Amino acid sequence: MDKARLYQHGTVGETVFAHEIDNEPWWRREKVPLVCQFCLTSVVSQRTSIGRSPRAALFRLAADQQHKDVCPLNPVEVLQKIAHGSQGVAVIEGDELHLVLPDDVGQIGDAAPVVGAGPAAPGDPFGVNINTVRPLLPPLINSAVVIVRFLQKHGFDTDVVGQFKVRRPGETKAVGWGEFCHGPAPGDQARLYARMTSGPKPGHPVAVYGPVTAVERDSRHRPVLRLADGDGFTVRVRSDHPSLLDLLAPGIFVLAVGAWQVWKPLNGKPELQMFAEEHWQLAHWTHDSATGRSGPPTCPPPLSLAQRTLRQARAAAAARKPASGRAVGPLPQPRTTAPPPPPPVPSTPPVPPTTAELPSAAAAEPPTPTPSAPGKPADVPVAPARPAHPPLPPRPSTPPRPAAPRRRRARRGWWLFGRRR
């Protein structure tokens, strides 16, 4: 929990906050008893832990203590409400809630959205009411948002986180919540980066939770969300649709669900990134760590008809384009035109063969190689060379044309000065 109340002499006192714990305030030095913010259950303060699983300072339940039934931070009541509105994707097993994960991101959006009572009323003092995120979200995303916001109220206490588990596709055994959701500690995101680079890669959609640290612009001036800078890598959310990221600003908490991948640019650090394609992949809300108040969760507006048409056109163009590295068939060879056959040779009367030219029975059969002694090559008959194309016969000569008689020049019958006599 991120805040508690002082309890002295049977009287509830002022509210204290988790961010004060590391500074050793007076109530911690004097060991003043603490109770829950909403009920009289005893709680204790815990400093920031540094190690393999670092966690921020928080308040947690004292040993053998449970929240009252009417307390909004009671996990049992929250588990019941989440399972009731999850349409079967959240199942209660004993004192645990199991979230059933699908194989692909597209299967999340195929489910019918959750219909509830709407967003929380303004001025809600608890900020943990089980409300439907607007616009309407698929049941798995809606359940995940409620779980993360509830864990945020508890400061991601390991005991409370242990009550939420997930079931991987095709498996009945549940695994820890960290198998699905990575955050808010940097070590959680580093664990996902290691899985994406070294394996085994998750066979289901995963979520990354954390505050937006910066809003950047890519080469096409589209917004890019930077969630964290890990040890040697950066966490970013990108999208081809600017409307999905336009409303987000630094300081807003985001739960990004989808298919994450690692991109290694030529210059710069590797990037753990997700491309948002639908509005339900990004749920966000505000949270004030000083007061512990959380704003109502929401998500970007759904894609317009024009945006969906553009996405379908890009997907169709990508499907027609051959993938890199795919084997390409042989290029078509140009057709060659065979030369026209030679004109037939004029037939001549057959000449009767002589006795020496008549074929024998041995010549009509294929020759059999004669066996030879060891080490001596066998006498293999050599096939006669195939004759080349027969020479073209000479064209018949054309008889010469008869010479025309020499043309005699006629004399003039007139002289220059009169008629010739």
Write the layout of secondary structure elements.
Blueprint: E1 3-8, E2 11-17, H1 26-29, E3 34-35, E4 42-46, E5 58-61, H2 75-84, E6 90-93, E7 96-100, H3 106-110, H4 139-153, H5 158-161, E8 164-167, E9 174-176, E10 181-182, H6 186-198, E11 206-211, E12 214-217, E13 223-229, E14 234-238, E15 253-258, E16 260-263, E17 271-275, E18 282-285, H7 305-320, H8 361-364, E19 414-415, E20 418-419
Parallel strand pairs: 7-8, 10-11, 14-17
Antiparallel strand pairs: 1-2, 1-3, 3-4, 4-5, 6-7, 8-9, 11-15, 12-13, 13-14, 15-18, 16-17, 19-20
Describe the structure.
The chain has 421 residues and is an alpha+beta fold. Helices cover 17% and strands 21% of the residues. It contains eight helices and 20 strands. The longest helix is centred in the C-terminal third of the chain and has 16 residues, at 305-320. It starts with a strand and ends with a strand. 25% of the residues are buried.
Identify the notable features of this structure and list them briefly.
421 residues; alpha+beta; 5-stranded antiparallel beta sheet; 5-stranded mixed beta sheet; 20 strands
Main structural class:
alpha+beta
Helical residue percent?
10-25%
Can you count the helices?
A: 8
Q: What spatial form do the alpha-carbon principal axes imply? A: elongated
Termini separation comes to 153 Å
- Contiguous uncertain segments of 5+ residues: 115-130, 325-334, 353-380
Widest β-sheet, arrangement of strands: 2-1-3-4-5
- In terms of DSSP E residues, the strand content is 15-25%
- The succession of helices and strands, N to C, reads EEHEEEHEEHHHEEEHEEEEEEEEHHEE
Q: What is Rg? A: 45 Å
Mean pLDDT across every amino acid position: 77
The total count of strands amounts to 20
What characterizes the major β-sheet? 5 strands, antiparallel
